[in-house]
Specification:
single chain, 297 residues, alpha/beta, Rossmann fold, eight-stranded mixed sheet, two-stranded antiparallel ribbon, 11 helices, 10 strands, 38% helix, 16% strand, DUF676 domain-containing protein
Length: 297
């Protein structure tokens, strides 16, 4: 991975960012006249973050994460916050090979390695706190990564560095099994990956694995500031009540299309404020509450 300190040197000053943001499994959305892609807007609204765009759809379960992967990334830094895109294998796996418990396990371990490398760069005077944001299956991989980090001594350091989690379109806890199956089918659709064979083959072990993972993950939710972005449904308040922990914030958004949540209206200040509140650690927002406004243009 490109040295974080070098990003600041290129601008002729010391590192200006205060924390790292890993965007896990997010997909690019093209610009429209009145909207701006979510990923680019986060860079503008949260200049305190060094953003890492972490791809999860480039490796299959037989491709073990390599330590060298985190040192071979392209740097797209421009200004205060750089965007680092993780290197990936050249070949593309079929969805049948990707969406499986083994794939989730491999990508969770790979994510932990990348977090460790990014937050403890050589030459840095201190390690940086980390905010993780996951979209769809990216959120599932985040959950498994945090379960591993909190239950494996060799990854305790990563568990401590992460302080905030954001889940976008990732199924939450206390859901009926049939609703889980519907959620997973929708998550498969938004990956926009082709697959062959029957969905029942993909679902054979995936549903049980993800269902159990969610309950295990919630043993550790008290350690983190958590935000869930969910689609507004007819269930309304009932869906919100599925997140009982007081640290878990639920943002219910209306959506006319699958990827609408990945856009934000350029002139919608309430929506921009919501992005800022979701993708900046709470302690950073509290520090600024007595000073500058949370939004700066």
């Amino acid at each position: 991975m490109a040295d974080i300190k070098e990003n600041a040197k290129s601008a002729g000053k010391s590192p200006a960012f205060k924390f790292l943001t890993f965007l896990v499994g997010f997909q690019d959305v093209a610009d429209h006249a009145a909207t701006s892609p979510l990923l680019g807007k986060i860079r503008s609204l949260v200049p305190e973050a060094h953003i890492v765009h972490h791809s999860i759809y480039s490796q299959g379960p037989n491709s073990a994460p390599q330590q060298d992967d985190v040192h071979q990334e392209d740097d797209f830094s421009d200004g205060n916050n750089g965007v680092v895109k993780r290197s990936s294998l050249e070949h593309t796996m079929e969805l049948y090979d990707l969406i499986s418990p083994a794939w989730i396990e491999k990508e969770a371990l790979n994510l932990l390695i990348c977090i460790r490398e990014a937050s403890t760069q050589k030459g840095a005077k201190r390690s940086f706190p980390v905010l993780l944001a996951g979209y769809g299956f990216g959120g599932v991989i985040m959950k498994h990564a945090m379960v591993i980090a909190n239950s494996t001594p060799s990854f305790y350091d990563v568990a401590i560095r992460v302080n905030s989690l954001v889940f976008v379109y990732t199924p939450g806890p206390l859901r009926q099994r049939t609703k889980w199956e519907n959620d997973l089918i929708e998550m498969l659709n938004i990956t926009q990956k082709d697959y062959h064979g029957r969905l029942s083959q993909i679902f054979q072990s995936l549903v049980d694995f993800v269902f159990q993972l969610t309950y295990v993950f919630h043993r550790f939710t008290g350690k983190y500031q958590i935000t869930h972005w969910v689609k507004s449904t007819s269930e309304g308040e009932l869906y919100t009540n599925n997140y009982p922990h007081y640290l878990e914030k639920v943002v219910s958004l209306s959506s006319d299309g699958t990827n609408d949540i990945l856009r934000c209206a350029i002139e919608n200040l309430a929506q921009l404020e919501l992005l800022r509140d979701s993708f900046a650690p709470h302690n950073l927002l509290l520090d600024q509450s007595n000073g500058n406004s949370a939004l700066q243009f």
